[in-house]
Amino acid sequence: MRLLTLFGMLLFLAAPAFAQNAQINARLAGLEQDVAAMRDEIQKLREEVQDLRSALARAQTRDNTANAANTETRRQINAVNTANTEALRSLEIRVNKRIGDLGTAFNRALAEQDKKVNAALAASPPPPHPVGP
After folding, report:
1. pTM of the prediction?
2. CA-to-CA distance for 85 and 57, rounded, in angstroms?
3. Low-confidence spans in the chain with pLDDT less than 50
4. Could you tell me which of 43, 69, 81, 116 has the fewest CB atoms within 10 Å of its CB?
């Protein structure tokens, strides 16, 4: 009978920790969905970077085969190539920053959830030790 009473008290005292654990799991699931969405966005940005690199390579090939006599056209092509190169650098910087921001945000949220779980576990009293028969 004592054991049943102790078990009932333990369940009653642990109920808030179980509820908080469910909230934490829900928030972590949301964060995981955000991470997956960001990974998809990063992949799309990488594909865009590759497309821009291909366009730049084609433009540079055209530039190399252009008529040397038409210096104005060559100057314009060089300006476009420079602009494309700068756009690629800017895009790569943004992609790397987004990746870094995502990792930082995820680690911060995970640390916060860890603190909450530890606080909830510390707040709940330890289960009583059974007294001899």
Report:
1. 0.37
2. 10
3. none
4. 69
Q: What is d(CA 108, CA 27) in angstroms, rounded to the nearest whole number?
A: 13
| Predicted confidence (pLDDT) per residue in 52-73, tens digit | 889 888 887 776 765 555 777 7
Tokens read off for 16: 């808030």
How wide is the angle at C-alpha 18 spanned by C-alphas 16 and 19, nearest 5°?
Answer: 65
Task: For residues 26 and 96, give the distance between their C-alpha atoms in angstroms, rounded to a whole number.
Answer: 28
Report yes or no: 48 and 84 within 8 Å, Cβ to Cβ: no
Q: How far apart are CA 26 and CA 106, in angstroms?
A: 14
**Residue holding tokens 């001899």?**
132
